[in-house]
Amino acid sequence: MNKKILMTPGPTMVPEEVLEINGRQPMHHRTQEFYELFSGLNLNLKKIFKTKMEVMTLTASGTGAMEASVANLFSKGDKVLFATIGHFGERFYDIAKIYGLDAELLDFGWGNAVDLNVLEDKLKDGDYKALFITQNETSTGVTNDIKAAAETAGKYSIPVIVDAVSSLGGIPLEMDKWGVDVVITCSQKCFMSPPGLSFISLSERAWGMAEKSTLPKYYFDLKKARKGVMKEKPDTPYTPAVSTIMAAKRATDMLLSLGLDNVYKRQEDFGKKVRDYIKDIGLQLFPEECIASNLISAIKVPEDISASDIINYILEKHNILITGGQGRLKGKIIRIGHMGYVTEEMLEKTLNALKEAVLKLKK
Amino acid sequence: MNKKILMTPGPTMVPEEVLEINGRQPMHHRTQEFYELFSGLNLNLKKIFKTKMEVMTLTASGTGAMEASVANLFSKGDKVLFATIGHFGERFYDIAKIYGLDAELLDFGWGNAVDLNVLEDKLKDGDYKALFITQNETSTGVTNDIKAAAETAGKYSIPVIVDAVSSLGGIPLEMDKWGVDVVITCSQKCFMSPPGLSFISLSERAWGMAEKSTLPKYYFDLKKARKGVMKEKPDTPYTPAVSTIMAAKRATDMLLSLGLDNVYKRQEDFGKKVRDYIKDIGLQLFPEECIASNLISAIKVPEDISASDIINYILEKHNILITGGQGRLKGKIIRIGHMGYVTEEMLEKTLNALKEAVLKLKK
């Protein structure tokens, strides 16, 4: 088997049995078989989101669901805070600015995690309508402590909106228990499915905010999507990506039958394994180890080697795709994704390939 | 082979070879193989749209691209005209209202086509910034004459936005030659692909309008999407539905190798065949024959039979899915889709099943 292995921030590898379903004739979305499928998916989603609330499925990538959270909960001029630690946090902030929110950026710097004391100082004085925060920042390989952040925001009754695009189903996130108001994720990361779907859930408090929002939305109107989900024969307001829904149902079945706690544990092991390995071969992690992601590892590029040479070497010699840095980190880091459908064997192959690349390319 | 046959307004049947590709491991969207795939798809799309302009691919269903046309070209209060003949025309109007456009509805009634004289009277006095019109209204089985409508609007220099969601690639539409400013379509109708993608192209004039638009958009920002398409290594601003793009590339290859003129001719034959057949068995077409769609046939339900009984009979006895009426036509019509990947055999089976159902169910 010399198929390309994706060790990227997503799309990630899709298991053969999920691919097989994706290759079936799509169902019609106004049929009994679809209602049953979608009911099943919705139930799986609630279990993964750890919520009693409805989870809405949007035919759009994660960015679409991020936009949906802005357009559905807020109005022009609403004051909100973005605690950012990298590219995707900044994207979320950009969306809010475009919708005319009074958005404030609390930038902790690329490579850092959110500092809870700094955050608390801001929150207590700010009168914000919401806090936006990224759980796992794939651009820097850093994970924020969402439980603690939600607790902090909770002290001041500030709703919390979490971009869990690359993290949900890979590391713990308990929407209801932690008091998170909006959770956003997508199909092509820890969900082991092809790209094309995003998932979003709102707390009762968030639905209350949605009642007051005056921003325009149609395709991303979450009230309409919720209505579809709540039907006895649940459906979506517009034709969804049926094939991807079929695939995501199967993939979430797999995730749940593995057991979320086992998945979290495996991701912890993978994260530690990568960090130990790169130390052994003389490489350095980009962020501090205590905030490093168990889903994606960002590694500093040694001074005498170029990032693209490492990436190309691993791709050409081993048919494994890892990625480089985005934006200001371009050329400075390489990133190995190890979320979703990654086996021990894939991970070992990747690490061995990295070691080989570094040895060969060193001047 | 007793697989379910979809004779619906979409999702329509997907050919086996397209399904096979949809079942492959998704590519990563920032790789050479994706750039080549996407270049190829973009070239195919230009040929099908019959335009020299870029065609943008959105990960969203057709409604998303409809919203994109509104959010990208207009500003609050812009006066626009919607010539509607059914459900999907009204949906387009609803989108414009939500974005605060000064949208006027020129409703020709469900079952009718746009009357060009009435349209011209409106256009000449109205000072509209655009005319919105549906090419093929699947809710009623009626096709509008877009060439003539564009000519009429052209006399008054009014830009024309065409919802060709269910028609492009099935009946003629020449974007550049006819002077159409925006064309919108999707993957799951005449494009013979799974649902999840929509496609949109803008004329130079429409891009000029986009420069002035002040409505908020992020995920559906067409300027960003265009920038991606125009790159030497073309891509999309956000992770697209890669598997569906892989499938759509193959499906559009098939469409173009069949030859669009041959496809149009086959659709004409199919339309006529259905209309002749239903007359023979004593049923009546819902619209006048001269405006009837060659892509989907809406048939009046005989007074002594229920629509759902016919639909269920055909589904249960023959495993063929046809659909009923939407909204105000619920229970009054049945609809047979014959667009996209439909063979002579499928069509004949469906017509025979319909005849059988009507005979059996007659009281």
From TrEMBL, chains A, B:
Where do the annotations place substrate binding? 335
**Gene3D superfamilies in alphabetical order:** Aspartate Aminotransferase, domain 1 (3.90.1150.10), Type I PLP-dependent aspartate aminotransferase-like (Major domain) (3.40.640.10)
Q: Which residues form the Aminotransferase class V domain?
A: 22-327
User: What is the designated name of this protein?
Assistant: Alanine--glyoxylate aminotransferase family protein
Family statement: Belongs to the class-V pyridoxal-phosphate-dependent aminotransferase family.
Identify the PANTHER family for this entry.
ALANINE--GLYOXYLATE AMINOTRANSFERASE, AMINOTRANSFERASE CLASS V
- Which residues belong to the signal peptide in this entry? none
> Which PROSITE patterns is this protein grouped with?
AA_TRANSFER_CLASS_5 (PS00595)
Q: What is the lineage of its organism?
A: Bacteria, Bacillati, Bacillota, Clostridia, Thermoanaerobacterales
Q: Which cofactor does it need?
A: pyridoxal 5'-phosphate
Q: Keywords on this record?
A: Aminotransferase, Pyridoxal phosphate, Transferase
